[in-house]
Amino acid sequence: MNCFRLLVLCIALFFAVPVWGQEAGYTLDGKMLFNTGEHIRYRLVFKAVQGKISGYTLSWLEPGKAPGKAFLTGRINKKRHTITFKETSMDNYLDSNMCFLNATMVYQRSGNKFIIGGSFKGTDKNGAACGEGMLSFTHSAEGDTVLGVQSGKQSERAEGVQSNIQSEKEGESAEGSKEESVRITAGDEPRLSWTTDTCIMFVWDYGAEDGDAVTIELNGVTVLNDFVLTHEMKQLSLPLKKGTNKVTITAVNEGSSPPNTARLQLIDGNKRYDYTACNPAGKHVVIVLQR
Predict the structure, then answer these.
(1) Residues 20, 71: Cα–Cα separation, whole Å
(2) In 10 A of CB 50, how many CB atoms?
(3) Do residues 61 and 99 make contact, with C-beta atoms less than 8 angstroms apart?
(4) Which of 27, 89, 90, 210 is deepest in the core (most CB within 10 A)?
(5) Can you tell me the distance from the alpha carbon of 205 to that of 281, in angstroms, rounded to the nearest whole number?
(6) What is the mean pLDDT of each run of 10 residues along the chain (291 residues)?
(7) Helix/strand/coil (H, E, C) string of 118-183?
């Protein structure tokens, strides 16, 4: 009888062990944007266990044809809100010219969804560069057990984020917690050294939704016009030229509670920069990105 009980216990432990430390799987549908301006549908499928991820990617390279499938390995850092991964081998493509991605992404919770984006570089089987660009995804936050960003919690800084952080104006954030950013106003012109060729930018109203509207320009060209800010984060993908790039944020109005306040987040690979632009109507701030 004791031997029987021991056997039952061993069987139970055998089936229980794989569950310990295991987290749910994820499927992220989004797009891959190449520096050339071309974009394709891209899917990331993975499981995470103790911060390590494994799975595969699907790339819809040619319309009407089955997607290319590549296996991946990587990591999730919940404190820095980063996902890094690399494609290691192709499942259904024998073309020696296939490009394997090495990507770093930052994720942010916005309401009931995650916004995930970052840069990638591609290399062929011989290690030669074969392309680079940006990845962009959105995903429902309902029932999340992997990314670990709780609504109403202040997020940790990504590696390389500015250290001279100042408190925002007094008051609670949109999701009920005090958050921090660099406060900028008319006449300010912060300068950032930029490493990637694209700026992923998020803009939203972090406080009470009071009708604040902004216009955003990149090097004098309007990329977002008279946009009314809400708690929903608006994502922009800004292609940068070599040298100096200027992002101008203009207050169209002051809403019902002056001044106009726009929360800004700029992502450069695995670096994240947070600002709050506070301006009277008609005034603007400029953020200079030196690439």
Answers:
(1) 24
(2) 10
(3) no
(4) 90
(5) 16
(6) 50 39 71 80 91 92 85 88 88 65 83 82 85 83 69 35 32 38 92 91 86 96 94 87 96 94 88 91 96 92
(7) EEEEEECCCCCEEEEEEEEEEEECCCCCCCCCCCCCCCCCCCCCCCCCCECCCCCCCCCCCCECEE
Written as six digits, the tokens of 109 are 């919770």
Using a 10 angstrom Cβ sphere, with 0-12 exposed, 13-18 middle and 19 or more buried, the burial of residue 112 is exposed
Nearest to 291 by CA among 242, 252, 250, 255: 242
Q: What are the backbone angles phi and psi of residue 70, rounded to the nearest 5°?
A: -130, 140
Can you give the pLDDT at residue 104?
85
**How many whole angstroms separate alpha carbon 201 and alpha carbon 236?**
5
Sequence-ordered strand ranges (E) for the chain:
22-34, 39-49, 52-59, 68-77, 82-90, 100-110, 113-123, 129-140, 182-184, 191-193, 198-204, 213-218, 221-228, 234-239, 244-251, 260-268, 271-279, 284-290
Picking from 290, 268, 242, the residue whose alpha carbon sits closest to that of residue 117 is 268
pLDDT of 188: 92
Could you say which DSSP state residue 232 is in?
S
**Which pairs with CB-CB distance under 8 Å and at least 24 residues apart come from 15-19?**
none
H or E element: which one contains 12?
helix 2-16
Q: Is the pTM of this model over 0.85?
A: no
Sign (positive or negative) of CA dihedral 138, 143, 146, 147: positive
